[in-house]
Specification:
three-stranded parallel beta sheet; 5 helices; mainly alpha; 120 residues; 3 strands
């Protein structure tokens, strides 16, 4: 009985992997098409990470397609404005990755679990 249960589980998981491979193939195709459309300058710009210190300057950089991500935006209106510029006012409309560098915690004295787990 246990062998039959294991076989059923194996077949179920094998089917899931196949559907994931089909999904990944379509994503890979979209990525390849996008990369072929991009200029070298746009590819380099996507590797540029901005800090939220001077967003007025950052908006211009984002509009030129020269930013792939922005760190430490705490105001949702500013984040939405930056994202709207990236998606609607750039040639390819690639959205920004917006994140926070909070390995030691954000507006708290307590470190986050990732910061505790990754002692260098």
């Amino acid at each position: 009985m246990k062998k039959l249960q294991f076989l059923a589980l194996f077949l179920l998981l094998s089917g899931l992997e196949t559907s994931a491979q089909v999904f990944d193939a379509s994503i890979e195709k979209k990525i390849d098409v996008l990369l072929k459309k991009m200029t070298l300058k746009e590819k380099i710009g996507q590797m540029n990470q901005l800090s939220a210190d001077d967003m007025e300057t950052n908006y211009k950089v984002i509009q030129q397609g020269m930013a792939g991500s922005v760190l430490s935006i705490t105001n949702p209106e500013i984040a939405n404005k930056a994202q709207k510029i990236a998606v609607e006012q750039t040639r390819l409309g690639i959205p920004l990755i917006i994140g926070r560098d909070v390995i030691h915690g954000f507006k708290t004295i307590f470190p986050i679990p990732l910061g505790q787990a990754s002692k260098f």
